[in-house]
From TrEMBL:
<dbReference type="InterPro" id="IPR046341">
    <property type="entry name" value="SET_dom_sf"/>
</dbReference>
<keyword id="KW-0472">Membrane</keyword>
<feature type="transmembrane region" description="Helical">
    <location>
        <begin position="37"/>
        <end position="58"/>
    </location>
</feature>
<keyword id="KW-0812">Transmembrane</keyword>
<dbReference type="InterPro" id="IPR001214">
    <property type="entry name" value="SET_dom"/>
</dbReference>
<feature type="domain" description="SET">
    <location>
        <begin position="120"/>
        <end position="286"/>
    </location>
</feature>
<protein>
    <recommendedName>
        <fullName>SET domain-containing protein</fullName>
    </recommendedName>
</protein>
<keyword id="KW-1133">Transmembrane helix</keyword>
<dbReference type="Pfam" id="PF00856">
    <property type="entry name" value="SET"/>
</dbReference>
Length: 348
């Protein structure tokens, strides 16, 4: 099968090692893994038994609403609350689509310079990882702590724990998401949770996890290309050692990390070490993400999240917080300008 860019799309679920680039994992249900990397941070604070229960629940795709811009399923909640959620999501999606434009960054000298710098630092070409599709590369030497790109948000979803989760997008993305349900997406990111210490764009209407999803067929704009960043490794063995080997291999190759930056639900990608000209940007999406893929592919039983794995997850959480704090300090002027312009936006 050939995608819109002329690339071979991997359809064989058993060819796990080749399934690294999200846009080429079209047949895999990634939500069974708690979404790529970000939600893994919360696992540090739950027991192994709870984690197994969470993964088991999320593996049941029937528990998730296939993407559509329609009201929620019937639930115990009153219809006015459901309508309020839908309106809030729709307005938030519209706002993000205004943000993901060159015009938005041109509204402030600080943001304009930031966008130019990001675009000048990165380029898209064939990944260095076999059969991984496209990847993001450094066009010049880049220092640690540098924001290189942003994660696009073409759809937003909410799980308040009380009703069926819901995702919304703009009309021109409906066709893509109708055939690529968010419940089966490999691009999902949880954008807001207590660890991030920022107010959700849906607050105070809704409390719960906010997710973003990507339509990879949309035209790329400026620096909104973080979804092209690959993981440097995968979990290939459904064992404790297999997961630990993944963390070692992925951590060794990782040179950037996706972080919440500025207002919800914006996610930026920042370097975690010096990156030389020509190197590919690689991140870690987490052992639980790849375990979920492995469970879907082979139909195996989940493993216990032993203390050694918990320690790796905790280490990842610490790295995230450290990168968040560093970026907040280094890009304080740009973040202030971003929030100011973001708050001016109104639904069209």
């Amino acid at each position: 099968m050939i995608d819109a860019d002329g690339h071979d799309v991997i359809n064989d679920k058993h060819d796990l090692k080749a399934c690294i680039q999200p846009e080429h994992r079209t047949t895999l249900s990634s939500f069974s893994s708690e979404t790529p990397w970000i939600l893994e941070m919360a696992i540090t604070f739950v027991s192994a038994a709870t984690l197994v229960a969470i993964i088991s629940f999320l593996r049941s795709v029937d528990a998730w609403v296939p993407f559509s811009n329609t009201p929620l399923r019937k639930s115990p909640l009153n219809s006015s609350y459901q309508e309020e959620i839908i309106q809030c999501l729709d307005e938030s999606v519209e706002r993000m689509n205004q943000v993901m434009t060159t015009e938005f960054f041109a509204s402030s000298p600080a943001l304009s310079a930031m966008q130019v710098q990001c675009v000048q630092r990165i380029e898209i070409k064939e990944s260095s990882i076999p059969r991984a599709g496209r990847g993001l590369f450094a066009k010049n030497n880049i220092q640690k702590g540098t924001i290189i790109s942003f994660y696009p948000a073409h759809a937003l979803g909410i799980d308040d724990g009380l009703s069926s989760p819901l995702f919304r997008s703009l009309p021109h993305d409906e066709e893509y998401f109708a055939s690529h349900p968010c419940s089966e997406s490999s691009y999902l990111h949880c954008t807001d949770q207590p660890l991030f210490q920022r107010t959700s764009i849906l607050s105070p209407v809704v409390t719960g996890h906010l997710f973003l999803d990507v339509n990879p067929h949309r035209d790329r704009v400026g620096a909104w290309v973080s979804h092209l960043i690959n993981d440097g490794a995968v979990v290939t063995s459904n064992t404790v050692q297999g997961v630990l080997d993944y963390y070692h291999a992925s951590g060794k190759r990782r040179n950037c990390i996706h972080i919440p930056w500025g207002p919800s639900p914006v996610m930026a990608t920042v370097t975690t070490k010096k990156v030389k000209k020509g190197e590919e940007f690689l991140t870690s999406y987490g052992g639980t993400y790849w375990l979920g893929v492995l469970l879907d592919v082979r139909g195996e039983e989940g493993i216990e999240i032993v203390p050694e794995i918990q320690a790796k997850i905790h280490e990842s959480a610490k790295d995230l917080v450290k990168s968040m704090k560093a970026a907040s300090t280094l890009y304080a002027e740009q973040e202030k300008a971003f929030r100011t312009e973001f708050d001016k936006l109104k639904p069209s």
